[in-house]
Amino acid sequence: MTQTTNTLVQKHTEGGITTLTLSQPEQRNSLSMAMLDALSEVFTALESDDETRVVVLAAEGKVFCAGHDLREIRSQFDSHEFQLALFRQCSKVMQQIVNLPKPVIARVAGVATAAGCQLVASCDLAVAESGARFATPGVNIGLFCSTPMVALSRNVPRKHAMEMLLTGEMIDAGRAERLGLVNRVVAAEELDGTVYQMAATIAGKSGHALKVGKAAFYRQLEMPLSEAYEYTAEVMAGNMKAVDAQEGISAFLDKRDPQWQDK
């Protein structure tokens, strides 16, 4: 078990599961430049962390993430350079989550709005407690949620994404599940059990297979059908050369548990 604590993001690893906890509840876990820098740093480190097989993204307090720090943004109204750097850094972090060679599960308790909703949408999986709520409310303050739109529109049907973006209204956890923004909605007291059971199930798989599969999933999404099949046929043929694939198939046929080497 390893644990690292700083004022912005806490990191705890146990049993192959690393939990990252946004730790500024008094700031509604806003994605300030400092928070984004901290997240970027930890995701970079996780890329080569052999101890971590699955990542859980959580938050302290009653708000999962309220999006960007509007006070920070207001203090920099006159700096186009800062605004561009902020949104670029946010976009980088979201892409780091997608490109991380380990699955990322959002554990959502409370409200996730604007870039906070984007954060949930960027994760591979999401489990929410029944009281969670979601919104992309930038339109309400004259700042359309354009970067959150990228992740949102890749997770929920087009017209529902547009409704969230154009109205800025909150949706409850049940609707978020129906739209595909989250995988499961559970009672608050069942949230940790559900999240960590899911994480443990995934952590028990071949790390090599998870890495190959996650990368292929996102790449093929943007391809035409025939190109996607050609690409994934090559991926599977390459995957067959892996030690774990040959071990897994042999273990299945021999009716025994596989011994993964993550290669």
UniProtKB/TrEMBL annotation:
Q: Signal peptide position in this chain?
A: none
Q: One Pfam family, short name please?
A: ECH_1
**The keyword Phosphoprotein is assigned to this record:** no
Q: Name one GO molecular function term.
A: hydro-lyase activity
Could you tell me which CDD domains the record lists for this protein?
crotonase-like
Family, according to the entry, reads as follows:
Belongs to the enoyl-CoA hydratase/isomerase family.
Q: What is the protein name given in its UniProt record? A: Enoyl-CoA hydratase domain-containing protein 3, mitochondrial
Organism, per UniProt? Marinobacter halophilus
Where is the organism placed in the taxonomic lineage, from the top? Bacteria, Pseudomonadati, Pseudomonadota, Gammaproteobacteria, Pseudomonadales
